[in-house]
Structure formats: C-alpha cells, structure tokens
Amino acid sequence: MENRLKSVINKFEIHSEFESYQELNSGHINDTFLIKTKLKPQYVLQKVNRTVFKKPEELIENKVWVSNHLQDKLKYLTQDEIQQKVLCFVKAKDNTFFYEDEDSNIWNVSIFIENSVTYLKAKNTQIAFEAGKIIGNFLELTKDFDISKITTILTDFHSVTVRHQQFKKALQNASESKINKTKGLIAFVENSINEMLTIDKAIEQKKLPLRLTHNDTKISNILFSKEGKALCLIDMDTVMKGVLHFDYSDAIRALCNTVNEDEANVEKIEFNFQFFESYTRGFFQEYKSISHEELKLLPISIKILPFLMGLRFLTDYLSDDVYFKTKYKKHNLDRAINQFTFVEKISKQFHKIEAFIQTLK
Ligand code: GN1
Ligand code: MG
C-alpha cells in the first residue's frame, strides 16, 4: 500500500517528499489517506469510489470550482490563512486536478489543515454554535455561486420521492426474512411519507430557490481548532444544486442526536434541544438572507433529513449493503432504526422547535 500511495501522490505537484501515510476512516464511501511529507504542508489523498460516483472527473471539477470561489471571497487573507479555512486542491503534474491510475481509479489531493480536530458528536453548546456559524458562513459565501456550471454528480440525491421509489424497488427484491425483520420500519416509512415530501413539493412548485449546497454537513465534516473554533467545512464531494434546508438540517441530524448515527441502543437517542438552539443561533449569525418561505419550511426539514438518511440506510440493508461501507451484518439496519427513532424524538419536541424558529423572524 505504501508504495502505491507514494507513486500516486508523486503524480501531483507536492512540495516535499513522501514520508508515511495514515488511513483516515471517516467516510462511508471513498478511501482517504493522510500523506505525511518531510516538509509542511501535509496532504489528504482521496480515491474516489467509482461504483458510487460515475462522474469522478466532474466531481473533482465541482469541488475545485467551489474552492476557488471561497478562496476568492477570502482573498483579503494571506495564503496560509486561506489554507486554514478552505479546502485547497493540488494540481496533478498534467495540470488537471486528478490522476487516473492503471486500474481506472481516480485520485485527488487537498492540503491537510494542521492543528485541527474533528468530532463525531458535539461536546457542548459552544461547538454546536460554531458548527452553525461555519455552515451558515459557507452558505453565505456561496449564495452568489453560479450553479449553472455545477454538474449534478448524484441525481436526486436529496429527493425523498426518488429515495422512496428506490426503497420500494429494494423491497420487491428483498429476502422474506429481511422484510419480516423490518415490518415496523416499513410501516413507519409509509405512515410518514406524505409529511416527508413537503420539501420536494415546495421545490417542485418553485417556492424554494435552488443554490449551491454542500449536501453532507455532518459534524465530522467540520474541522475545529483545539480551542473549539470551527475552522473549515471539509468533504466537498457532494457540492451540488439544492436548497438551504439540506445543509441546515443535515447538520442537526448529527449534531443534536445524543448518540452516533449507528448506535444500536435506541434508548440512548434524544434530540438535544440546547444544541439545536445554539447551532441555529450560530447559523443565523452568519446567514442573513433567508426568505419567508425558506424559514417556514425550516422546522419540517429538521425531520426530513434524518428520515431521508434512515430511508437510504434501510434501502441499503434490504439491498444487501451495496452502497454504504458496513462493519457488520446489521449495520445499515441499526443506522436506519437510529435515524427513524431520532425523527420520532424530533416530533416530540416539534412545537418547541417551531416556536424557537418563529423567534428568528
Ligand atoms: C455518506 O461518505 P460520507 O461519510 O462522506 C453519504 C452522505 C451521508 C453520510 C452519512 C455520497 O457520506 O450522503 O449523509 O454518508 N455520502 C454519499 O454519514 O452518499
Ligand atoms: Mg461525504
């Protein structure tokens, strides 16, 4: 492995020599490595999963565009400061931003942000507030991003309609024992689906503006300083066109769940209202231009994003785990149960959530 990674990293314009590597096990899809070099900076090398991403070149093009846009917005800062706040990509020696190896794998490299830490869960309200700020700031800085040049690399990524169709198809092909095991979850999906289509319908009716969205704002995609300040939103793999709710609420999905998204003991799952308040305050400290219609659908979107994730995990479980990386047999099932339980916990506090969002007007 070491020789392979060394050979790949040398296809890029790096400033120093390969020393060692460490696998970063954070994502469910791609393979990512920290490449340590003799001199700073160090690099993050990513192999794109081609089964999931059919257009890897476009994926990389998208993220370089967004990175350039952010760098441009921050050009009053020094290069070093920019590299602490924005994921900056490294050119390959052939002047593109990717390298295709002999096995048709596509690789890309970004500059590693030093002295940063990540969390799977928010530690306290300050971390939640900071997470809100960085996501609000990302959306603020990209609100004038020209989305016409963005390639949709995963169609209908956040479409509940399409995820529901995929789920029904998986059900048709699933084994009897899996169907029996998931009866309660299937009923939950069917009982909730109408409400969960609210954002889809609003998009269809053109009530919500399409803009650039990150589409994977979970807390583990935020780098924090050791002092607890949010530095940078990473993982630009799914930047696409979307609505602000996707990013605002996907973060809540991870941030306000008292446990990790695959915790099997559902008794431990609660919606942390304090973290929700702090996160939302941080978000709106940075993001100032929400429309009346967008604000109206903010509370319901807090339920929709974990529902959608639960549906995707359940679909993958029924399809014998073809999409997400899993560590054990029922991993996707545990994830689905976890997400649906979280939706129920949100429902219990829904009036309080709505009332708090009303105060933001
Ligand atoms: C996947 O691979 P990773 O962990 O960055 C998924 C996201 C989910 C996330 C759940 C391309 O992201 O949509 O929110 O898992 N990415 C893709 O943890 O499907
Ligand atoms: Mg991701």
Describe the structure.
The model has no long low-confidence stretch (mean pLDDT 96). With 361 residues, this protein is of the alpha+beta class. Helix content is 47%, strand content 12%. It has helices at residues 2-9, 56-73, 79-85, 125-141, 160-173, 176-181, 183-196, 198-204, 244-255, 273-286, 292-296, 298-318, 331-348, 350-358; strands at 18-24, 31-37, 43-48, 99-100, 106-111, 116-117, 211-213, 222-225, 230-233, 240-242. It folds into two domains: 2-114, Phosphorylase Kinase, domain 1; 125-359, Alpha-Beta Complex (Aminoglycoside 3'-phosphotransferase, Chain: A, domain 2), CATH 3.90.1200.10. Helix 7 (183-196) runs antiparallel to helix 12. Bound molecules: 2-acetamido-2-deoxy-1-O-phosphono-alpha-D-glucopyranose (GN1) and magnesium ion. The site of 2-acetamido-2-deoxy-1-O-phosphono-alpha-D-glucopyranose has 10 residues, from loops.
Please give a handful of descriptors for the protein shown.
single chain, 361 residues, Phosphorylase Kinase, domain 1, Aminoglycoside 3'-phosphotransferase, Chain: A, domain 2, 2 domains, five-stranded antiparallel sheet, three-stranded antiparallel sheet, binds 2-acetamido-2-deoxy-1-O-phosphono-alpha-D-glucopyranose, binds magnesium ion
